[in-house]
Structures are given as C-alpha cells and as structure tokens.
C-alpha cells in the first residue's frame, strides 16, 4: 500500500513554504521543509516561477507516486477554481484574475484535480483540527493574532475563513483592538513610552504596571469579542495562534476570568502546530477521506 503523502504549501505576501505531509500520521515528513522569500510585487512570471521552484524541490524527497498539492493562500481568492481575486492589497497584483491552478498545473505537470486551495486562516485552523490542539472537536474558532487579525471557523468539521477582522467592535472594528498596533498605541497612551511590539511588553510585564494593565485590558477585550461568537456558533474550543499567542500567559487570566464571569467554559488553547499548522491543514485538503 502506497503511503498517503501530500505537499502542503503556505503562501504569504513575502514567502512560500512547502513540506511533505504524511496524511496517515498527520505529521511533516523529516527534512522536507523548503522555504524561499518571494516578492509579491513582482511580475506573474517571477512569482509563479519562484513558487514552482520550491514545490519542485519539496517533491524531490517523495520519490515516485501521484503528486498532490494543498495550498494555503490569502484572499480574496476563488478557492475552488484557483483564481486570484487579490487587487487592492499591495501584493500579488500581477496575479489578479489569473487561474493559478491551471498555471501551476502546466508548469509542474500535475493534474488540476490534484491541486487544492484553502484560505490561509482556514488552513491554520484546519491543521489544528486535523492534527493539533483542536483534533476531534466539531465547532472551533481559530484566531491568528499579530499585525492583523486572522479568523476562521470549523463548524461540523468544515473549515472556512470567518473574516471577522473588520466586524464592528467597541469604538471601531475588531482588528483595531486585537492586533499588535493596539498594544503599542495603548501602552503609549498609559505610559508615554514607545515600544516596538508585544515582545517588549512581555519582557517588562512583571515590573511595569502599565504593561500589566495593557495585557489585562487586552484579555478583557478579547473575551468581549469572543462571547457573542461562542454563543452564536456553540464553539467548544478556541485556538489562538500568531505572534501575540506567545504572550498568552500575560493576558490569559483576565480573558478566562471574564469568560467564566459570563458563564462560558469554552476551552482556550494555544496553537500546537504553530507555523506548521497551515502546511498540514493545506495538505489535508488532499486527503480524499476528508473531502
């Protein structure tokens, strides 16, 4: 019996990462990760050639057998057809309305039926549901907290982009309060000091009461954001990833206390797979038992 293996690919505005995934053990295959910077402002030819180069290199470790690819890609994108709809985001402008699936199929000599796309936020959560912190859970919310707010939902084992970043929240939208820039701005408002990001605040949280206040306020804001979503979708687990997740211990007490104060016992977990989540989630799209 041939081992069920697929290539997981994670595409961002500045990079491509690819790795072979053993779909049986739900793990990355040893030494198979390939990564390269890619300038998303480049021409169609430069971008697609760079992607194909990494995909080819990653497949070299597989040997013979059918080549299946799952690609986690930022939106807007027609994921079923493989057509890029990105045009106003300062990235991948050269790919607007290009059928990326057909382009990759021709260049890599892989049938289009063997190339699958998933939203990058959904790919992160799909990975955690397939092989990580949310394995076996039916209704899960995934949040990637960093420079922006990524969000995805898995309802009845189906994962999709939730696009909650611009939902109305407090005096603006969710991303105004649940991203790195909020930490920087709020700490400056309270202390008059300037920090580059959340990492610097974690380093001083034990000794600087303003930093402590910022993390407590963030935990409270995150709970307020989560309460209606958890109620609406009957979420049993929330998975948190992204750079801000590394400061979880600083904001978790206030987050969990506020949720419990509102009668919510939903589990809050940190991503287990971290940067590998989208790779494993994308590759899992090639598992015929899941489709």
UniProtKB/TrEMBL annotation:
InterPro entries according to UniProt: ATPase_NBD, ROK
Pfam families named among the record's database cross-references: ROK
CDD domains the record matches: ASKHA_ATPase_ROK
Stated name of the protein: ROK family protein
Family: Belongs to the ROK (NagC/XylR) family.
Coiled coil: none
PANTHER family listed in its UniProt record: BIFUNCTIONAL UDP-N-ACETYLGLUCOSAMINE 2-EPIMERASE_N-ACETYLMANNOSAMINE KINASE, ROK (REPRESSOR, ORF, KINASE) FAMILY
Domain of life the protein comes from: Bacteria
